[in-house]
Structures are given as C-alpha cells and as structure tokens.
Write a structure and sequence with these properties.
The structure is a single chain. The chain is an alpha/beta fold. It has 12 helices and 13 strands. A hairpin with a 2-residue loop joins strand 3 and strand 4. Helix 5 runs antiparallel to helix 6. The protein is globular and about 55 Å long.
Amino acid sequence: MSRIGIVTDSIACIPVKMMEELHIEWVPYYIHRGTETLRDRVTATSQSFYQWMISVEKVPTTANPSPGEYLAKYVQLAEQGVREIASIHVSSKASGAVAAASAATKMLNEKFPRVRVEVLDTLNVQMAQGWMVIEAARAALAGASLNAIVEMVRQMVPVTRMIQTADTLKYLYLGGRIGGAKHLVASVLDIKPIISMEDGLITALGQARTTKKVYRQMVDKLDQAVGQSAVKVAYVHAAAKAEAEKLKGLVEERVEVVESFITDLAPALGVHTGPGTVGFCYYPVLDTGG
C-alpha cells in the first residue's frame, strides 16, 4: 500500500479490478429510482440497470455521496497509518462531490489533525476524471510526494477530455435537458449528439444522424486536438461494448495510443444519456509529462 491515499467516487468509471490493483478507495453515488435508492456500481450494476432503462418513461435522479461517506474513507486510511490523501473528484460545476469532500476534510482535521487531505477539482467527469485518479495512484505507488501528485493532476486538468455520443436524445429529453422545445422531440430523438466538457461544464460539440457519421466526427475532433502527441484513451460505454470496440478501432487507426482499455459507464452518469452511450476519454501524455 502507498503511503499516500487516493480517494475518488464511482462516476470516475475506473474498472473495479484496476482500482483494487492501484489501491484506489472510492465512494458510490446514489441513484433514486422512485422510492428505491440504489448505490452506483454496487446495487446499480451496469448490465441490469441499462436493461431496465430501455423501457422507462421517467429517468431516476442522482446524488453525490455525503461528507460523512468521504470522511469514513479518510478515517479508514488514517487508521491504517496514511498521513497524506489526494481526493480527486468530478467538476465542482456539475456536482457537489468537491464540496462534500472539502467538508469531510474539515471534519477529519478535528480527529486526525496530522493527516493532510488535498481535495482536487478535476473540472472533468467520467474517465477524464478517472485518468487523473489512475495516474495519481500510480505516482503514489512509485513514491511521488503529495505535492508532486497535486501538480501532476493540475497539469492534466486542461488537456484531459471526454467526447461521447448518446444513441438517442430520449433520455436527455426525459431528464428535462432538452428545454422547452417539446414540439420538436418527435423529429430530433434520433439525432446523435456529441457531448464533451469544457471548463467544468457539459457542452455540445456537434451532432449527426447516423452512428457512422458521429463516430467520424468524434475521431476527427480527437485527431485535431492531439496532433502528433501520443495519448492514453479509455473507451466508455453503456451496454454497448461492441460499439466501444468499433470506436476503439477507428481511434487507433488515426492516433498513437500508448495505453487503452474499455470500461462501463457508471449508471449514475448513464441515467442522463441512456443505454447505447459510447465515447472516449483521453489525454496527450507528451503534453503532461505523463
């Protein structure tokens, strides 16, 4: 175990086996489905959750973990002798995780004043957040200082990106994210949007009518962004592994990928875009010194 603890949450979408190997501690988000409360990636697993979503008429709501849940992880690490922790979370402009982790840090200091926690706002989501967590954990295991890990993550923030597409606008519409243009819904549900995050907020990069065209646009945007830099890429999907593999092939024909893997989209994120969502998260390793 590293002398520096690494903490994140379920929507980083990191494969569970990888988190175990890198000693990453994580806390699940919550999904409220009617009167039922599910724990993301614990009682809400990808296969069963996305199968259920196919026929829904009202999407669930989600909530970030409480300060007490982050505190429990910090205390667990402190009791194991860890004195420094990097707690790495989704954009503070999109969720309350950073605020909850910051509150937990203050609570921890009352009981363990010698334990230092750095709460890091990735201004990202999904495996863009996940890559920062992975590289932080690898650096910690290699003996890097907490200051060096914090600086590395901060350098990754502006160059680590998510690009994904939803199979349909249905779930964005059901979740109230299309706006008031309900009269257009029948004609636009089959449009496949390209979604990213810029400066901590979800943004639209484009759209297409067919999967082939939307994948081409996504790969073009990646190619334009990274140029000749080598990249690390995580392909993320919601019950669409075959599509993720197809997208992987298109990406790796165009850019130099030095590490990649395919992972499931956490259900707490998939409630917004639905089954069939496919995308990738990447960062150019030469630009960050990774």
